[in-house]
Amino acid sequence: MKPILEWQIASVKSIRQETPRAKTFTLLLPNWMRHKAGQHYDVRLTAPDGYQAQRSYSIASEPERGGEIDLTVERIEDGEVSSYMHEVLIVGDLIEVRGPIGGYFVWEANMAGPILLVAGGSGIVPLMAMIRHRAAVGSKTPARLLYSTRTPEDVIYYDELIGLQSAQDGLEVAYTFTRQAPPGWTGYARRIDAEMLGEVAGPLGDEARAYICGPTLMVESAADGLLQVGLAAGQIRTERFGPTGGN
Ligand SMILES: Cc1cc2nc3c(=O)[nH]c(=O)nc-3n(C[C@H](O)[C@H](O)[C@H](O)COP(=O)(O)OP(=O)(O)OC[C@H]3O[C@@H](n4cnc5c(N)ncnc54)[C@H](O)[C@@H]3O)c2cc1C
Predict the structure, then answer these.
(1) CA angle at residue 86 from 80 to 92, to 5 degrees?
(2) Could you read off the pLDDT of 166-205 as tens digits, one per residue?
(3) Which atom of ligand 1 is nearest to the CA of 73?
(4) Using N-to-C axis directions, what is the helix angle for 216-228 and 194-201, rounded to 10°?
(5) Hey, which of 59, 81, 82 would you mutate to test ligand 1's pocket, going by the most ligand atoms within 8 Å of its Cβ?
């Protein structure tokens, strides 16, 4: 077996526009290795003059899908790597990656207890891998997702989430829109706070495992909120994607 952290050359199998700012890249991996939901890959770009840029991207796909992975990348204005992936990368291109990486922010369906997933923006990506893994193995583990985006059009995987929720197998999804909600919206329309977390997490009880992922400030405030509503620190896992709290 190849060492986990060896770089390999993936090829771009397909590209899907998820939202105006997010695209999913399906990468074929010559040395595919089963990952755990929540792990990520590193992507490395090398310019003709040898300059390199490297960033981490969570795996969006479930571990049960062999030979390939999905990475969903949000385009950051002036972002070196995300802009390249959005504007330059096309189907058939080759790209250097290594992974799967990470052992802390992971969930496996055989772990006991309900799960609370809290996402801000592209922070949905590793949580979607968990949701897809749960569905792929037919788990009935109670799972609640609280997903914060600026506007409804920024919601990634919306149709798939609707479909999974309609299976009524214990997955519940709540949205909050921080800048613009749809007309007539009666759900949450503010940043995630302790009251909202209490309402969403409440039915799962004190034993829930929580996974929070998104912009740094959002992750920190959601973790504080969960402590306030009574979750123990040891039950809360966090993944910070970036420096801003602009969600
Ligand atoms: C473990 C891990 C997993 C990640 N998974 C994903 C993922 O699944 N999808 C995804 O889209 N991103 C993910 N990220 C973020 C990603 O690694 C990059 O930071 C992001 O794509 C920006 O890189 P860039 O080269 O485009 O921008 P840069 O050239 O690094 O930055 C350009 C400007 O944008 C700011 N910036 C950098 N990152 C962010 C950010 N995340 N949000 C807002 N502003 C930012 C910088 O401060 C700078 O001002 C993950 C990060 C980590 C650590």
Answers:
(1) 115
(2) 999 999 999 999 999 999 999 999 999 999 999 999 999 9
(3) 11
(4) 60
(5) 82
- Among the residues of 4-139, which ranges form H helices? 80-87, 124-136
Residue with structure tokens 């709540």? 174
Ligand 1 neighbours (beta carbon < 6 A): 40, 55-58, 72-74, 76, 78-83, 122, 125, 215, 239, 241-244
Q: How confident is the model at residue 206 (pLDDT cuts 50, 70, 90)?
A: confident
CA dihedral 78, 82, 85, 88 (to 10 degrees): 0
For the purposes of burial, counting CB atoms within 10 Å of the CB of 187, is it exposed (0-12), middle (13-18) or buried (19 or more)? Answer: exposed
pLDDT category at 112 given cuts 50, 70, 90 is confident
pTM of the model: 0.96
Q: Facing residues of 116 across strands?
A: 144, 210
Position 245 pLDDT exceeds 90: no
- Take atom 19 of ligand 1 and give the residue whose Cα is closest: 242
The residue to which tokens 């799960």 are assigned:
115
